[in-house]
């Protein structure tokens, strides 16, 4: 059985960015994750060991957000890689990373990138 598991609106403070101020002060980021996973009979038999542990996924995202990158594309790529590496039952991993209130010289709510692995 294929299921889609979504972790939405995870928010982190991190030091991603190409400007010195971003690297020093940091910014707020929002991450959305959508996983298509082959979980077999996990749903029918209430078996976490065959499914995807949401807490473990959140911890993978949190760990990757703590590693500073110049561009959020790299952050999204690393999140996708770590999730697929930890959970081989994940067939597709869609990662959206948004920088809230980015320093672009005007009012912008967020800039986001999405990577599909």
Secondary-structure blueprint:
Layout: E1 2-14, H1 20-25, E2 27-38, H2 42-45, H3 54-65, H4 72-86, E3 90-100, E4 110-116
Antiparallel strand pairs: 1-2, 2-3, 3-4
Helix pairs in contact: 3-4
Query: What is the approximate shape?
Result: elongated
Main CATH class = Alpha Beta
Q: How many individual β-strands?
A: 4
Biggest sheet architecture: 4 strands, antiparallel
* DSSP summary: helix tally: 4
Oligomer: single chain
The CATH architecture classification is 2-Layer Sandwich
List the domain count as a whole number. 1
Give start-end ranges of low-pLDDT stretches: none
How much helical structure, as a percent, in the residues? 25-40%
Q: What is the percentage of strand-forming residues? A: 35-45%
CATH-assigned fold name: GTP Cyclohydrolase I, domain 2
Mean pLDDT: 94
State the end-to-end distance.
19 Å
Report the radius of gyration as a whole number of Å.
16 Å
Strand order of the largest sheet: 1-2-3-4
Structure, briefly:
Helices cover 32% and strands 37% of the residues. The chain is an alpha+beta fold.
């Amino acid at each position: 059985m294929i299921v889609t598991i979504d972790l939405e609106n995870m928010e982190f403070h991190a030091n991603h960015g190409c400007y010195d101020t971003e690297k020093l002060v940091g910014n707020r980021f929002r991450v959305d994750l959508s996983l298509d996973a082959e979980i077999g009979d996990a749903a029918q038999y209430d078996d976490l060991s065959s499914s995807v542990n949401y807490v473990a996924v959140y911890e993978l995202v949190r760990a990757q957000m703590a590693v500073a990158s110049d561009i959020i594309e790299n952050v999204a790529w690393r999140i996708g890689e770590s999730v697929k590496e930890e959970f081989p039952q994940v067939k597709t991993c869609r990662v959206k990373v948004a920088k809230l209130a980015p320093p672009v010289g005007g009012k912008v709510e967020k800039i986001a990138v999405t990577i599909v692995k």
